[in-house]
Specification:
Elements (H helix, E strand, L loop, with lengths): L9 H27 L1 H8 L3 E6 L2 E6 L2 H22 L5 E6 L44 E2 L23 H12 L9 E5 L5 H14 L4 E6 H13 L3 H9 L3 E5 L8 H16 L3 E6 L11 H7 L3 E5 L4 H15 L5 H10 L4 H18 L5 H7 L1 H7 L5 H11 L14 H17 L4 H7 L5 H17 L1 H15 L1
Parallel strand pairs: 2-3, 4-6, 5-8, 5-9, 6-7, 7-8
Antiparallel strand pairs: 1-2
Helix pairs in contact: 1-2, 1-3, 3-10, 4-5, 6-7, 10-11, 10-12, 15-16, 16-18, 17-18, 18-19
Bound molecules: adenosine-5'-diphosphate and magnesium ion (MG).
């Protein structure tokens, strides 16, 4: 469609657009360098190249998937904001992997782990799709579906959005996937609250190892581990069970807290664990608490679990929730306005699964009725979910906000320090916890360094009294309340 004489010349236009974008980009880079520092800039951002603009979206390229994911998780939001400030017509940034001539398209799914429907003795046969010559790996890559659970193909490093609360756990998982059984990372113990991505990371490790054709991987929940073990005892095949388990290169056990109080299964797991680690195999375990907090697990097991790398996934931040929503909205192909994403990220703070569920419903609705997603439609479609999340502020959030507001350390919320500068904010946090959550007084006391419920009662009446006396103080508390409720 390039025009001839004096006509519309698409090539010239594209070139002009390129050079204009290059000018904007160099200005953005200058700002980024100042914001993130030279080292961060050079490590992550310098590798970005600017691609085309399509309507309100600019595409930026990175050379590898890892970089793309990292940049998306860490800087995705910021890149969007900076581009929008430079060129108001650009409202979204799309990060893609550009590998010249081979992988310009978004990461393909064809290389996700094979999940044989019915395991057979020749599981080790090469997959029909694999046309490459057989590599010289010592052992065929496989997911031991006979032994364990199949991997969920949606859970890959690619689809995991990285942010401050999970970057350490992510980096550890990545490291284990790249180099299983490396000293210091065995076992890898991932812990954190419900719906924060533990299972997602474990499956990602499995998917990556299998994709690379490296090793045999078995993933299962601790619950399944127990049932398999019991079934093996019943059918008098424990030897076989043990041998199977001990033959894998990477064993991943999810939700280990399930084994609390199940002494025999714990014992079996402990032996399997030792046998595998001693044989130089990798173990990955997840739980809802750190090894030292998993009271109810045998001491020797806790000790061993804490011997490798322990990585926690913290509660999501607003920024991370926005990045996750953006990534999932982009993947869905439905345009979801930033306002709506912000609204969701404010309202649904507890776990990513719920956040994802809300967004999925919106997207399904938009697809079904062919209507654009708006804030009004969102409130309507998600009526019930939003209602359930109303006033569901967590005590941790309250403590964080209050500590930030008065510039004290978060740990002082549960410390024994009684200096006024610390004690007053702590009382305000207790007061707000009483007002904004449905937690009981003893529960609140416990979250503040195991204080007695009478301390909470005292805090509530003290703050109420002070608010009546001191309008400036009352305003501070009101402001905090509004911030927490929004
Ligand atoms: P957990 O095992 O910690 O309870 P999951 O790994 O099952 O949590 O995560 C719950 C849901 O949230 C999954 O659908 C997962 O894909 C999604 N999720 C959690 N964290 C992230 C993240 N950082 N990026 C993308 N998706 C995430
Ligand atoms: Mg899980």
């Amino acid at each position: 469609m390039t025009g001839g004489l004096g006509g519309y010349d698409a090539v010239a236009e594209a070139n002009a657009q390129k050079s204009v974008l290059a000018i904007h980009w160099s200005r953005i880079c200058e700002r980024l360098k100042v914001e993130v520092g030279e080292v961060e800039y050079r490590t992550w951002l310098r590798q970005i190249t600017v691609g085309p603009v399509d309507e309100d979206e600019i595409t930026l390229y990175l050379p590898t998937r890892f970089l793309r994911d990292w940049v998306r998780g860490q800087y995705g939001d910021r890149l969007g904001t900076l581009w929008n400030a430079e060129v108001p017509a650009i409202r979204r940034v799309e990060l893609q992997v550009a590998r010249p001539a081979t992988d310009a398209a978004p990461a393909g799914r064809e290389d996700t782990p094979p999940v044989p429907a019915a395991p057979s003795p020749d599981r080790a046969a090469p997959r029909p799709a694999a046309s490459a010559p057989v590599a010289e790996e010592p052992r065929p890559a496989e997911v031991r579906t006979d032994l364990a659970a199949p991997l969920d193909q949606r859970f890959t490093f690619d689809t995991f959005v990285v942010g401050k609360p999970n970057e350490f756990a992510y980096a550890c998982a990545r490291r284990v996937a790249e180099q299983p059984s490396s000293p210091g990372f065995n076992p890898l113990f991932l812990y954190g609250g419900v719906g924060l991505g533990k299972t997602h990371l474990m499956h990602s490790i499995g998917a990556e190892l299998v994709r690379e054709g490296r090793v045999s991987v078995a993933y299962m929940s601790a619950e399944k581990f127990m049932y398999r073990f019991i079934a093996a005892i019943r059918s008098q095949s424990t030897m076989e069970f043990k041998e199977q388990l001990r033959s894998v290169d990477v064993l991943m056990i999810d939700d280990l807290q399930f084994l609390i109080g199940k002494d025999n299964t714990q014992e079996e797991f402990f032996h399997t664990f030792n046998a595998l680690v001693d044989a130089g195999r990798q173990i990955v375990v997840s739980a809802d608490k750190s090894p030292s907090d998993l009271s109810g697990l045998e001491d020797r097991l806790r000790t061993r679990l804490g011997c490798g790398m322990v990585a926690d996934i913290h509660a999501t931040t607003f920024e991370l929730r926005i990045s996750i929503l953006e990534a999932k909205a982009t993947a869905s192909g439905v345009v979801v306005p930033a306002k709506v994403l912000e609204f969701l990220a404010h309202k649904i703070t507890s776990n990513v699964r719920e956040l994802e569920g809300a967004l999925n419903r919106l997207i399904a609705h938009a697809n079904l009725f062919g209507r654009p997603v708006t804030l009004e439609a969102t409130q309507d479609v998600l009526h019930d979910i939003l209602k359930a999340h109303d006033r569901r502020v967590t005590i941790e959030e309250i403590q964080r906000k209050v500590a930030e507001h008065w510039n004290i350390r978060l740990t002082d919320m549960s410390s024994a320090r009684r200096a006024r500068a610390v004690a007053r904010p702590r009382q305000v946090a207790m007061y707000l916890a009483k007002q904004l959550t449905s937690r009981s007084l003893p529960e609140i006391g416990r979250k503040f360094g195991n204080r007695d419920h009478t301390t909470v009662i005292h805090a509530v009446s003290r703050v109420t009294g002070l608010m009546a006396e001191d309008p400036a103080f009352a305003e501070d508390v009101e402001l905090l309340r509004r911030m927490l409720e929004s």
